[in-house]
Specification:
Strands 1, 2, 3, 4, 5, 7, 8 and 9 form an 8-stranded mixed beta sheet that branches. A two-stranded parallel ribbon has the order 6-10. The chain is of the alpha/beta class and about 450 residues long. The protein is flat and about 80 Å long. It is built from 16 helices and 10 strands.
Length: about 450
C-alpha cells in the first residue's frame, strides 16, 4: 500500500516539479513560452461562448414572458366582453402629474432678478432630484466596489446563477472550479512560495556584499527573477507599452489597484519602495529588501511628520545612483475604473515625474483589493483562484513641473494624463473618504453651487 501511494505521489509531483523548475529558469532568463497568452485567448473564447448561451436563454425567457402577456390580454378581453370588466389601478407618473423638475433658470417665465416673487414650490423637486441622483450615482463609493462585468466569467463568485441555466454551462462551470482549485491553486501556491523564498534569500545574501556596481547588477537580476516568479504565480499576462519611457531614477508614480501593482511593475524594472514599516512576515521581507538596496520605510510616528518624509525622499531622489522610487499618490486602492486625488507630497520633492498607467482586464478576475472587507491573505487567495491576471502597463513620457505651477496643479496634471492613457475616469475626490468622514470643505462646495441658483447679489 505504501509503495502504491509512493508511486502515485511520484506521478503527481514529477510533472509539477518540472513545471516549477521550468518557471524558475524562464523567470531568470526573462523569457516566456507564450502559453499564458494562449491560455488567456482560450478563456476569452469560452467566455464568449458562455455569453452567447446566456443571451439565448434571456431571449427565450423574454419570448416566453411575451406569450404569457398576450394570453393575459386575451383573457381580459374575453372578461370585458362578458360584462365583467376588471378595474386596474395605475399610477400617473407623467411629468405633468409630478410637476416640472427643471431648474429654475430653465423655465421661460422665471425671472431670476426677482427670485422671491417668481419662486415656485416645485423648485424643491429639483434639489430633491439632485440628492437622489447623488445617492444612486455616488462617484466616491463606486470607486471602492468591484467593477461590474458586462459578461459572466465562469467564476464561483457570482449571485446571478448563470451556471444553472443549461446542462452544458453547469458542466463547464464545475470543470472550471476543479481546474482553479485543484490544479491551478496548488501549482500557483508552490510558485508563490518559491518566489518569496528566493526574494528573501537572495536579498539577504546580497546584503553582505559591499556597495558596488556588481551588487547593483546582482540585485537587479535577483529582483527581476523574484517578481517574475511571483507574477507567474498569478498566471500574469502583462503587456508593457512605450518601454523607452521607463524611469531610470527619480520618482515614478502610478494608479493603485492592489499591492500586486508592485509585482507587476517590478517584472519590467527595479524600483525602490517607500512605505510604513511593518512587523511579522511583511517586516521580514522589508528588512531583507533593505539589505540589498536602499528603500525608505517609515515608522508609524514618522509618517505624520511631513517634513521628515519629504527630506528623506529628497535625499534619495537627488542621488542619481539610487533606484527610482515607486509611489502610489492616491494613498489607497481604487477599483481600476477611476483615478482619485493624488497627494501632493511626492510632487513637492521632485520636479520630474515618470507617470505609469496600469489597467487590468476584469474579465479574468478582480484585481481590486477592498481592504475594508477583506484581509491581505483573502485578497491573495482571490487572485490565486482567479483565471489569470491580465494587465496593460503604459510608460508615459516624463513630466516636468512648470515654474508657475504649484504641487497641487502638477499632481492634477499628472493624474489627468494617467487617467487618459489608462482609460480611467478622472475624479477630484480624496481616496481617504474610503475610511474617514467627509470634510466640511467638500460639503461647502456643492452648497455654494446650489446657493447660486437661489441667491442674487
Amino acid at each position: 500500500m505504501d509503495e502504491q501511494l509512493l508511486v502515485v505521489l511520484t506521478l503527481l509531483l514529477t510533472p509539477l516539479g518540472f513545471l516549477i523548475l521550468l518557471s524558475i529558469i524562464l523567470a531568470s532568463l526573462g523569457r516566456s513560452l507564450g502559453m499564458r497568452r494562449k491560455y488567456a485567448d482560450l478563456m476569452l473564447k469560452i467566455f464568449q461562448w458562455g455569453q452567447e448561451r446566456i443571451a439565448l436563454y434571456n431571449e427565450t425567457k423574454r419570448h416566453y414572458n411575451r406569450s404569457e402577456s398576450e394570453e393575459e390580454e386575451e383573457e381580459e378581453e374575453v372578461t370585458r366582453e362578458n360584462g365583467h370588466d376588471k378595474q386596474v389601478i395605475r399610477r400617473d407618473i407623467s411629468i405633468s402629474a409630478m410637476g416640472s423638475l427643471k431648474m429654475p433658470s430653465q423655465r421661460p417665465e422665471y425671472d431670476i432678478t426677482n427670485l422671491k416673487k417668481e419662486f415656485h414650490v416645485s423648485d424643491v423637486m429639483y434639489f430633491s432630484k439632485c440628492g437622489v441622483e447623488a445617492i444612486i450615482e455616488d462617484d466616491v463609493t463606486q470607486c471602492f466596489t468591484a467593477e461590474e462585468l458586462k459578461s459572466w466569467n465562469f467564476l464561483t463568485r457570482t449571485t446571478l446563477g448563470y451556471q444553472f441555466i443549461s446542462m452544458r454551462l453547469t458542466i463547464l462551470w464545475c470543470l472550471g472550479c476543479f481546474v482553479r482549485y485543484f490544479i491551478l491553486l496548488p501549482f500557483r501556491t508552490l510558485v508563490l512560495c518559491t518566489g518569496l523564498s528566493w526574494l528573501i534569500i537572495s536579498t539577504a545574501v546580497l546584503g553582505y556584499l559591499p556597495e558596488s556596481n556588481l551588487k547593483k547588477r546582482l540585485n537587479q537580476k535577483a529582483s527581476l527573477m523574484s517578481h517574475r516568479l511571483l507574477a507567474r504565480a498569478c498566471s500574469a499576462v502583462l503587456t508593457f507599452h512605450n518601454r523607452e519611457n521607463i524611469a531610470k531614477n527619480g520618482i515614478c508614480v502610478a494608479n493603485h489597484t492592489s499591492p500586486i501593482d508592485v509585482i507587476i511593475l517590478s517584472c519590467d524594472g527595479c524600483y525602490a519602495m517607500v512605505g510604513q514599516a511593518h512587523n511579522g512576515f511583511l517586516g521580514i521581507v522589508q528588512r531583507a529588501l533593505s539589505r540589498a538596496t536602499s528603500h525608505i520605510w517609515f515608522e508609524r510616528s514618522e509618517v505624520r511628520d511631513r517634513h521628515l518624509v519629504a527630506r528623506r525622499l529628497k535625499e534619495h531622489v537627488d542621488n542619481e545612483d539610487k533606484l527610482p522610487i515607486l509611489i502610489f499618490p492616491e494613498g489607497t486602492c481604487i477599483n481600476n475604473t477611476s483615478v482619485v486625488m493624488f497627494k501632493k507630497g511626492s510632487f513637492e520633492v521632485g520636479s520630474t515625474i515618470y507617470p505609469v498607467a496600469i489597467k487590468y482586464d476584469p474579465r479574468f478576475g478582480d484585481a481590486f483589493w477592498d481592504s475594508s472587507k477583506m484581509g491581505m491573505l483573502s485578497h491573495i487567495f482571490q487572485i490565486l483562484t482567479s483565471w489569470a491576471l491580465v494587465a496593460d502597463v503604459w510608460y508615459l513620457p516624463p513630466m516636468m513641473k512648470n515654474e508657475t505651477e504649484d504641487a497641487v496643479n502638477f499632481a492634477n496634471r499628472v493624474k489627468k494624463e494617467i487617467a487618459r492613457r489608462g482609460g480611467l475616469v478622472d475624479l477630484e475626490w480624496d481616496g481617504q473618504l474610503k475610511r474617514t468622514k467627509v470634510k466640511d470643505a467638500y460639503k461647502l462646495k456643492p452648497q455654494e453651487e446650489f446657493s447660486k441658483l437661489l441667491k442674487v447679489d
